[in-house]
Design a protein that fits this description.
Elements lengths: L1 H5 L3 H33 L5 E3 L5 E3 L1 E4 L2 E4 L5 E19 L7 E5 L11 E3 L1 E2 L6 E17 L7 E9 L13 H29 L1
Antiparallel strand pairs: 1-10, 2-5, 3-4, 4-10, 5-9, 5-10, 6-7, 6-9, 8-9
Length: 204
Amino acid sequence: MVDKLKKISSRRIIAGTAMALVALFVFSGLFSFVTETAARKNGSLSTQTMQAQDFAWSGIAVKDGAVITTDNDPQMIAEYTGKITSIKMYMESSVHPGEMTVYYTQPGDRAFSVHKRLWLVPVRGQPGWFMVETPVKNITSLRIDPTMYAGNVLDFGDIVINSEKTFGEYFSVSYGDFFNLFLYTGVVSSVLKFLQEMLKKEFD
């Protein structure tokens, strides 16, 4: 057994690591599909569509019929109870919004914290849509920071909580996923190669 491990080539280590990570990605997609489907059937997960007006605004105002940010930390806050798997928001802005973040609180939290923060990113092929996907339980409130800049004119559309996905969407791949695959394949295979070399020294 030890001799076989010592003879594994670097190419096989890299290939095996990559295949293991792909298998983990597929398993994660299947797990999300099964758990979310079950949650929708038992009523613990549902889709909710909100509008910007459903949130309390800070640093955002209506001027001459337009929604505009009045400082560099505009916030939209709303009470929300339950589980979140995704937040999808439509928004157009007069200038690039910069970093778009979502904060959430859970039971016992006194305020929003950077330790419970998510990032909205553009949805590929859907101009104006931004989304974050992450399973978080026991939410008590949400805060969306739609832009980093004052004077930004915003035009909001639907804000969809827990949007339903097709089976294939559980396995959708982004450019970031490819980057992570290459990154983690390199890191993990390097660690395995190091352990292999240690094994050789130990038993030679």
